[in-house]
Amino acid sequence: MEVSLKQTNGQQESKTNLTISIFYFFFFFGLGSFTPLLSVYLNEMGLSGTQIGTVMSITPIVMIIAQPMWGMITDYTQKPRLVLTGTLITAAVIGLIYSSVNTFSILIFIAAMLSFFQSAVIPISDSLTISYVQRVKGNYGALRLWGAIGFAIAVLFSGRLSEIVSLSVIFYIFSITLFITAIIAWKMPNERSSAQVDLKKGVTTLFRMPRFVLFLLTTFMIFGPIAANNVYFGIFITDMGGTLTGVGIAFLLSAGSEAPFMKVAGNWIQRLGMLHILLIAGIISCLRWAFYFVEPSLMLVYATTIAQGVSVGLFIPAALQYVRDISPNSVRATAVSLYAAIGNGLGSWFCTYVGGVILETSGILNVYLFFTSLTLIGILTLFIIRYLDQKKKEVKNVA
């Protein structure tokens, strides 16, 4: 009887793991078919660099406002799967409308609406997945890496299809994929998360911690350019003479390289320490942006895309763990929310918007010079944090 129960639980766990993996694959397939090529589509529409930067920078700003709102809606309804499914279907419908818009002011509105509903997907699905893996003692990274694989395959697929049909096909791939994801979402584990985010209580405490404030600045400076690169990398490739298929290949290599580094990140963090991993990720990002500024050959650009695997695959888990480790237990959830909103959200918006202005006035190469400068500041900030960490350890040892 006990053996039979274990077998049943094991089968159910395997089925749930497969459902979650497929969910991440399809959702990120949708994003991969859409986000990297959207800037190229807007460029071909005749929008200026500033206008492209404005449209593309809406998402992180809307996310800062919308994500806490979706969290409250999910907590109030206690129906995360229903909210997740509904937002996916709505985002899919808006994606279809997006394809027919050709007026800048309406583009801004549609982009904001899409971002509002799309911003609910990752927090809710991650919350369900993390609650599930904690309950069954599973591996979050092993499930989440299917998102990176889906994203990588999608850019190559949609890039090639765009050359055969037209760039507008990205909207249809995006919407169809999100409809499929909505069906899968209804089969996600219906977990409940007990973690509550109390921003009022935690903000004062956290902003009195120099290391936390400096780390927000670090994330802003290092991860902002990484996020903005997803917007401008397609324009960079096409300006260098690459094709839309070439854009797909570049993203396949860069996004695809994230998965193996995500898988080994935990072991590397234990061996070298979080700050050393963050420094490695930051330095490799900085060297990558500087290399693009000197206008290398396309073959060398493709060859160096694996740098994204190191910078993203290592930076994200190390940064999240560092934020949790330096924050008091009572405000840990608040710390993670602030890290996502200020470090990632504002950093992504700033780099995307300013990158668009630079693209219009100085060209794509200077966008990467801008990324290099910001990342260098982030690396220097990390050295300051490392110094503060060492001083704190010395004080503890003396005590």
What is Rg?
A: 21 Å
**Whole-number mean pLDDT:** 84
Largest sheet: none
Instruction: Give the distance, in angstroms, between the N- and C-terminal Cα atoms.
Output: 56 Å
Task: Provide a brief overview of the structure.
This protein is mainly α and 399 residues long. The chain is built from 17 helices and no strands.
Which characteristics define this entry?
399 residues; mainly alpha; Growth Hormone, Chain: A; cytidine transmembrane transporter activity; transmembrane; transport; uridine transmembrane transporter activity
What does the secondary structure layout of this molecule look like, with pairings?
Blueprint: H1 2-45, H2 49-56, H3 58-77, H4 80-98, H5 104-118, H6 121-136, H7 140-164, H8 169-185, H9 199-206, H10 210-239, H11 244-256, H12 258-272, H13 274-293, H14 298-303, H15 307-326, H16 332-362, H17 364-398
Helix pairs in contact: 1-7, 1-8, 1-10, 2-5, 2-16, 3-5, 3-16, 4-5, 4-6, 4-8, 7-11, 7-12, 9-16, 10-11, 10-15, 10-16, 10-17, 12-13, 12-15, 13-15, 13-17, 15-16, 16-17
Characterization of this structure:
Keywords: Cell membrane, Membrane, Transmembrane, Transmembrane helix, Transport. One of its GO terms (cellular component) is plasma membrane. It holds the Pfam family MFS_1_like. GO terms for molecular function: cytidine transmembrane transporter activity; uridine transmembrane transporter activity. The protein has 399 residues and is mostly helical. 86% of the residues lie in helices and 0% in strands. It has 17 helices and no strands. α13 runs antiparallel to α15. The longest helix has 44 residues, at 2-45.
